[in-house]
Amino acid sequence: MKKYLQEFKEFAIKGNVIDLAVAVIIGGAFGKIVSSFVNDIIMPLFGVILGGIDFTNYKWILVKESFSETGALLQAEVAVKIGIFLQNIVNFLIIALAIFMMVKVITKSKEKLAKKQGEKKKEEDAPRINKEEALLTEIRDILKNNK
């Protein structure tokens, strides 16, 4: 049992658990922002464009509510809530687009960093010529051109 606790401690100390927790918290907050954006901005605009349809209440009623003579509910409404489904599709598309853009930016940044590191490595690997060698090379080239 101590071995498992030690392994878990090493796992947690590496930062994997902390990184995961931060990602979940930020993802939850981002999801709320996207949901608000879709529910409060995009869907009302679609509703106006499509003739005043309120997508939050848009549904196909399969069974209507029924009440007894005393007012007690006998049968609850059964409906297919298409509006909420459409909102969730728009939420998904916006989140997917945001993640795609984020991954694209990260990939480009990594490529630029790798390219810069490759250039630095080439400069470091190139032979360095001191002043004497440079002067001797210059004299050699002049003598070759005079022949």
Brief summary of the model shown:
With 147 residues, this protein is mostly helical.
What does this structure look like?
The protein has helices at 2-14, 16-49, 82-125, 131-146, and strands spanning 60-63, 66-67, 73-75, 78-80. By secondary structure, it is mainly alpha-helical. The chain has a single domain (2-127), classed as Non-ribosomal Peptide Synthetase Peptidyl Carrier Protein, Chain A. Strands 1-4 form a two-stranded antiparallel sheet. A two-stranded antiparallel ribbon has the order 2-3. A hairpin with a 5-residue loop joins strand 2 (66-67) and strand 3 (73-75). Helix 2 (16-49) packs across helix 3 (82-125). It is elongated and about 120 Å long. 3% of the residues are buried.
Largest sheet: 2 strands, antiparallel
User: How many structurally independent domains?
Assistant: 1
In the predicted model, the low-confidence regions spanning at least 5 consecutive residues are: none
Task: Report the total helices.
Answer: 4
What is the string of helix and strand elements? Answer: HHEEEEHH
Going by helix content, strand content and strand pairing, the class is: mainly alpha
Total number of β-strand segments? Answer: 4
| Residues in helices, as a percent range | over 70%
